[in-house]
Amino acid sequence: MAAPEQPPPDGSKPLSALLNGIAQAAYYGNADITEELLHGQLYPEAAPEEFRALRAKMGGLLQSIASADMDLNQLEAFLTAQTKKPGGITAEQAAVIAKFWKNHRAKVHESLVSRSRWDNVLRSLSWRVDLKAQHRHLQQINTTPVAIVEMELGKNGQESELLCLEFDEAKLSQLLQKLSEAEQSMAALTQSTQ
Fold this sequence. Notes:
By secondary structure, this protein is of the alpha+beta class. The chain contains six helices and three strands, in the order H-H-H-H-H-E-E-E-H.
C-alpha cells in the first residue's frame, strides 16, 4: 500500500498530504488511498464529520482547479476569491493548494486527458509511394504507382495495431479531395462560431 508522498516539514504538512492523497485516489488511480486512511494518518484528532467536510471541500477545490486546468494566474484569482467567501479557505490553505497545484498540474492534466479517451489514438503515421522500377517488358515499367499508408493505432496500456492501406492514383485523388472538403467544412464552422 503506497502512502501519499511526504509533504514539506511545516505547519501545512497534513493539508499538503491530504491534497496528495486526494490526487492519488482521484487522478492517479491509487485505490489504496481511502478516506479512512487519510483521516487516521493525517487528522486522527478530528471528528469524522469534520474530516469528511475538510476532505470534501479540498476535493471540490482540486476538482474545480483540475477541470479548468488553471494556470498560475487563474489559480491565484480563484484562491483569492475562495479566501474571501464565507466558509471558504484560509490564506495558509490557499498557499498550500497553490504549491500543490504548481507541482502536480502536468501530471493531473495528463491523467485527465488519458482517462477521457475511449477510442484508439493515432500513435504514428508513415507513407510511401511504390513504383515498379524494373520489369521484363518495358511497357509495364512505372505503371500504376501505389501509395501505401501505415498507421499505428492503440489505446493507453494496450498493444498497438498496425493498419496498412494501399491507394492507386484514383483512390488517392478521391481521398485528398475528401480531406480538402472536410478542411473547408471545418474552416467554415470555425468562422461561423467566432
